[in-house]
């Protein structure tokens, strides 16, 4: 029997597994690097301090590098991971799902975000890492430093949005585009947290890593997130 017709689907399946394996390995590496900084002198690795100071004007740690308008852009980026924006965008997407009678997707979305928030809260409670003391904060802070909650929630929220929307898209390139946009948003949030001086770089690495690992777990447990088409 000629199985050539099955080759494209088999290739896509292998690519999907390979992609998630690469993401998982990268996430574990980032998490290991982030955790290692917790055992360094003063609770922050030398690389953490160096990167933080490299983003400030020499001799004036209160002034981030770049023009004032760029600082405003970074504040806009960091807001993408804020609880207000995440909840607001989640409610909008839930409204869309309700109109389309996709109650299962609402449950998946809620479970994904609640689970990520629980993971963040547990890590912050037990690790209780202080916020960076090298620079003046450019945004209000309310919790411990490790991991970056904004980064973790942005990663989980936007990747979940993309995966649920992509589940009904037949074209692979369109699905990859949606997922790519989600990761760009997550990366932008993390970079902005470092730039604004409210997190150590390792806090952000942990946020990306934990978020990625949580999404891998979700995608393995929930068929809806595996982009299977009839």
UniProtKB/TrEMBL annotation:
- SUPFAM superfamilies named in the record: Acid phosphatase/Vanadium-dependent haloperoxidase (SSF48317)
Give the transmembrane ranges: 20-40, 77-99, 106-127, 147-165, 177-198, 204-222
Could you tell me which Gene3D superfamilies the record lists for this protein?
Answer: Phosphatidic acid phosphatase type 2/haloperoxidase
InterPro entries in the record, alphabetically?
PAP2/HPO, PAP2/HPO_sf
Taking every annotated instance into account, which residue ranges of this chain make up the domain Phosphatidic acid phosphatase type 2/haloperoxidase?
103-219
Return the CDD domains for the record.
PAP2_like_2 (cd03392)
Write out the catalysed reaction: di-trans,octa-cis-undecaprenyl diphosphate + H2O = di-trans,octa-cis-undecaprenyl phosphate + phosphate + H(+)
Q: Name one Pfam family in it.
A: PAP2
**Keywords on record:** Membrane, Transmembrane, Transmembrane helix
**Enzyme group, top EC level?**
hydrolase
Q: What is its EC number?
A: 3.6.1.27
Q: Any idea what this protein is called? A: undecaprenyl-diphosphate phosphatase
Its source organism is Tahibacter amnicola
